[in-house]
Amino acid sequence: ESIIVKSLAEKMSISAGEVIKKLMELGILATINQEIDADTATLVANDLGFQVDIKIEVDKETMLVQEQEDAPDTLLARPCVVTIMGHVDHGKTSLLDAIRKSNVIATEAGGITQHIGAYQVEHKGKKITFVDTPGHEAFTAMRARGAKITDIAILVVAADDGVMPQTIEAINHARAAEVPIIVAVNKIDKEDAQPEKVKRQLTEYNLVAEEWGGETIFVEVSAREKQNLNELLEMILLVAEIGEYKANPNRAARGTVIEAELDKGRGPVATVLVQNGTLKVGDFIIAGVAYGKVRAMMDHTGRRVKKAGPSMPVEVLGFSEVPPAGELFYAVEDEKLGKQVIGERQVKKREEDLKVTAPKVSLDDLFNQIQEGQVKELNIIIKADVQGSVEAVKQALQQISTEEVRVNAIHGGVGAVTETDIMLASASNAIIIGFNVRPDVNARKALEAEKVDIRLYRVIYDAIEDIKAAMSGLLEPEY
Ligand code: GDP
Hints:
binds guanosine-5'-diphosphate; 33% helix; translation initiation factor activity; GTP binding; nucleotide-binding; initiation factor; globular; Translation initiation factor IF-2
């Protein structure tokens, strides 16, 4: 444990000069940006008349509040959290709306007028939480920040259109997140619907229907005609039962910000999903560098609630500023500690804005990471100008796995390297390999925030050789 002189001074609201002076008295010469160990910091703080909270509830490295493990007997069943994914125009929004309208528990307030990024429905006395993450990018961006919110992914495929590029992307994102997939074959009301064709196409991606000897649940639905929606809910509950999702409602809340905005009248408004514990009005909460006391909470129907337990999405008022979507939030019992964490996060954020961090996995130090046992699986995303190259690389890669490292092609596609690819790579510690393609504008922007190793090649052989070399520690460094 260590702390930078400047941060220590900020925490005590005194000048860094005073801290440096005190350190000198103790025989330590330090600069304002120097790190000093926890013992020294405690000594200085005590000397200056400050109490130091020894109770470490915050990971100094990541500045994340540390999770206290819940004893098994404190865990109770919680509703499952479901995300709908799929190709554009295949009916994600329509399906979400149709389910919401037919199953949401109406209140006297009478309104399903509210649109928040998540809602709960009840089916056969059991609750299901639906999270509306617009696009796979959001889904994966959340994972890149360390938030895993989804238990089950519903893959929507339009029966008239069949498997499309974003269908495949959705499959790969769900797989990378290790969540079970239920396929909803939508638009079966259409004359040119070919649900069997969808089933056949998906077998290529290892989603094999049960009646064909596989394990994937397929439900044929029509969002427009509200056909088979109950059956879909039934299947979700079935998968949820196997997952046995649990949480401890009797502890301070933790969860994820799903979306947030600045409301003219109400100030920062955040929709959060409680993932563990119970969030209550009056709780002190932190999310990134935003903090505040929960002033009021609303459920998805706009009704005020005093508390929200596991898997419940709520709108929260009271944040000091708008927290970014995907940020983890924590209710902190000790408000002083909470403010301390925020202070350190702000310092750290400023420091990080200044320095460029290295990607988590890169070809350049892959060998070292293998040797240190940090890497056992090398995840690779392949983008190319033609499908043939994607397939060729996939096959070649499968053959170069060694006993130490398994090489996985987690996603492959035709076209430029996109922002979604960057997010997926960041969330899955993957390297991106491109053939005759380049990162597009948004990808380049995303690269500034998410450090990911991208390698561009013209010849497949070169890529394979590079990866082989990196795995055996023979890669020539790139200059
Ligand atoms: P998203 O882009 O995946 O969210 O797709 P939308 O929900 O916006 O739907 C795209 C289009 O397909 C809209 O015009 C919908 O009205 C239509 N659509 C969605 N579901 C169905 C369905 O079950 N049957 C038919 N015939 N049309 C549908």
